[in-house]
Write a structure and sequence with these properties.
- By secondary structure, the protein is of the alpha+beta class.
- The chain has 2 domains: about 10-55 and about 185-390, Naphthalene 1,2-dioxygenase Alpha Subunit, Chain A, domain 1; about 60-180, Rieske Iron-sulfur Protein.
- About 25% of the residues lie in helices and about 25% in strands.
- The protein has helices at about 10-25, 45-55, 140-145, 180-185, 185-195, 215-225, 230, 330-360, 375-390; strands spanning about 35-40, 60-65, 75-80, 85-90, 95-100, 115, 120, 130, 135-140, 155-160, 160-165, 165-170, 200-210, 245-250, 255-260, 280-285, 290-295, 300-305, 315-320, 370.
- A 7-stranded antiparallel beta sheet has the order 13-19-18-17-16-15-14. Strands 6-3-4-5-10 form a 5-stranded antiparallel beta sheet, with no helix packed on it. A 3-stranded antiparallel beta sheet has the order 2-12-11, with no helix packed on it.
- The chain is globular, with a radius of gyration of 22 Å.
- The two termini are about 40 Å apart.
- It holds the Pfam family Ring_hydroxyl_A.
- InterPro entries: Rieske_2Fe-2S (IPR017941), Rieske_2Fe-2S_sf (IPR036922), Ring_hydroxy_dOase_asu_C_dom (IPR015879), Rng_hydr_dOase-A (IPR001663).
- Keywords: 2Fe-2S, Iron, Iron-sulfur, Metal-binding, Oxidoreductase.
- Its cofactor is Fe cation.
- This is SRPBCC family protein.
Length: about 400
């Protein structure tokens, strides 16, 4: 099943078609009420960066992996998050749990491998060993070390939940942190993600880029459908319409529809009857730092993870998800080609432009920056960030 129909009811699909036909016929796009002015220091201020890590990422859930990256019992994956490096471990009962990747003895990095399968994790520094459940199992030469209450020396655990095919984590081991993905997403957005059946997809490949760019610069780039013609002239611009978006805010989050130029082949008919499934991209923007793009034959998932201790560093992760595992050479060649296109767009175009933006906003003499009315998803993001800091009980 290479191509799949849009996973929404006919009323929703007709709404997508009607909105896109109207915009393309009239040269319009969804717009915010006014232009938004922002202070460029949001991309460079170390004090704000520290607040984001402590007051935002220490409380709200973010995607850490796709479930198929941990397919079997005792599989593990190390993931760098804004505050901690975390080890995700598939338990014998099938649940995924997450632990701060630090030995409780002297602070050694417990798991140096990126991924693998283990029942016991042993620290290379002094040999203390922990089970897959995080419990302290053994202390090397324990009689000479002294008395230790092992019940108080388990690995520090972070909240984890699997939902919609992803492993979500709250990046804090504080006792008062609770995770509830359905509540965080809200009913409508949760339903929209559920309809995409992402738990039936498999992760074909993951790419990681560590860049000296603030995470919000990158999030802004992927919320923005206004730069396709200018930034991506050498890759995807000939195939996608620029500056024509249908935007639907959904509580904290939002959904946006954009069109491939191939939509012109079905645009003359009634929106209710138009087969638009292969001609649009549906993007889900998950606050604060994630994007899930539905293409006609695969999904693309982007995470923009702030690096610890710096205002400008980010680990950008890109995942390509396919409906079925790639088994044949033909299937692998297809997804390798898609991956190469993504790399050309992200690494060779978006990252180049955004690296220049990061350098430019670091200039001393720079006035306010502006998001136009047509940059409506970006405005949603920045308004939400302001509300999140102002309302820590509900996070915007």
């Amino acid at each position: 099943m290479l191509y799949t129909d849009l996973p929404y009811d006919e009323e929703t699909k007709t709404g997508f078609a009607r909105a896109m036909f109207d915009h393309l016929d009239n040269g319009t796009t969804d717009m915010a009420p006014d232009i938004l002015e922002i202070d460029p220091r949001i991309y460079t201020d170390p004090e704000l960066a520290a607040r984001e890590r402590k007051e935002l990422f220490g409380y709200v859930p973010i995607i850490a992996a796709h479930s198929t990256e941990l397919p079997d019992r005792n599989d593990f994956l190390t993931v760098r998050l804004p505050n901690n490096e975390v080890v995700l471990v598939r338990q014998p009962d099938g649940e995924v749990r997450g632990f701060v990747n630090t030995c409780r003895h002297r602070g050694g990095r417990l798991v140096p491998e990126e991924k693998g399968t283990k029942r016991i994790f042993s620290c290379r520094y002094h040999g203390w060993a922990y089970g897959a459940d995080g419990s302290l199992r053994s202390i090397a030469d324990e009689p000479t070390f002294g008395t230790v209450d092992r019940n108080c020396m388990s690995l520090l655990e972070v909240p984890v939940e699997e939902r919609h095919g992803f492993v979500w984590v709250i990046d804090s081991a504080a006792d008062d942190r609770k995770i509830d993905i359905a509540e965080w997403l809200g009913h409508d957005f949760d339903d929209s993600l559920a309809a995409m059946e992402m738990d039936r997809y498999t992760c074909y490949t993951v790419g990681t880029f560590d860049v000296d760019i603030n995470w919000k610069v990158l999030m802004d780039a992927f919320l923005d459908g206004y730069h396709i013609t200018s930034t991506h002239a050498g890759t995807v611009a000939p195939y996608f319409y620029n500056n024509a978006q249908f935007w639907q805010p959904m509580g904290r989050h939002g959904r946006m529809v954009t069109a491939r130029k191939s939509i012109d082949t079905v645009r003359g008919g009634s929106p209710a009857d138009a087969p638009i499934d292969r001609h649009i991209t549906v993007a889900h923007f998950l606050m604060p730092n994630m994007t899930v793009l539905r293409q006609p034959d695969h999904l693309e998932v982007l995470n923009f993870v702030p690096a610890p201790g710096t205002a400008v560093g980010t680990r950008m992760q890109m995942r390509l998800l396919t409906r079925e595992p790639a088994v044949t050479d033909e299937q692998k060649a297809r997804w390798d080609k898609n991956w190469a296109i993504l790399m050309a767009v992200l690494r060779d175009e978006d990252l180049v432009v955004n690296d220049g933006l990061q350098k430019a906003v670091s200039n001393t003499d720079i006035g306010p920056l502006y998001f136009g009315r047509n940059e409506i998803a970006n405005q949603h993001f920045h308004h939400w960030m302001a509300r999140a800091f102002a309302d820590p009980r509900k996070w915007g």
